[in-house]
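Example record for the data management plan.
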Amino acid sequence: MSKRALLEVIALDPEDAVAAQTGGADRLELVTDMAADGLTPSVATFTGIRAAVDLDLRVMLRLADGFAAGDVARLVGVAGELRAAGAEEFVLGFLTPDGGVDLAAVEAVAGALEGCRWTFHRAIDRAADRDALRKALDGVPGLDTYLTAGAAGGVDDGMPTLLAEAGRQGEPGYEQQILVGGGLRLEHVPRLLDAGVTGFHIGGAARPEGWTGPVSAPAVARWRAALN
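Corresponding structural encoding:
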């Protein structure tokens, strides 16, 4: 039997979370401030969402727009606060100014997660060398997923890369789940499923009214049906 594809939905508050769960989401990515492409939510937001749903929750660790780590000590502190509040899964990813992975920052923050599972987010789509980034991160504790569109411009541009990387799954540096997101549309799904992709991530696609409106349970349900 084929593995059920995972559907992850961005949630900003408990109402989003409940709608996403009702629609059939498997997991939520928790963020705030989508104008900055998603920053770390407050502990209160996390605990409110945790009380509202029983889905797995991946909490963003990102304090400012862009892909620089910034204040690593503060990031480590925030991670500790979220861990103390019960967070068990996270999302992070940092680059150096030349587009390489900021391994020191990633290892420092991952170390504060005490073995929790985490996703390296779309910073990979801005990396100077995706393959080098993956190999540099190989073996960092907890890393089990790459969120990627295959290209900075989105899935339309990145489809060849996504298909190529799906074909390499299981190789060193390619053992993590590919979670496709960033300009993802329903029409992309069949080709990605055929290539063996098992993770799909939606944000705006779950919000018919745009980012000023809530997650729509029927919109999420359409994605769940397509993935089934």
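Summary line stored alongside the record: The beta strands are 6-11, 27-30, 56-60, 89-92, 117-120, 143-148, 177-180, 199-202.
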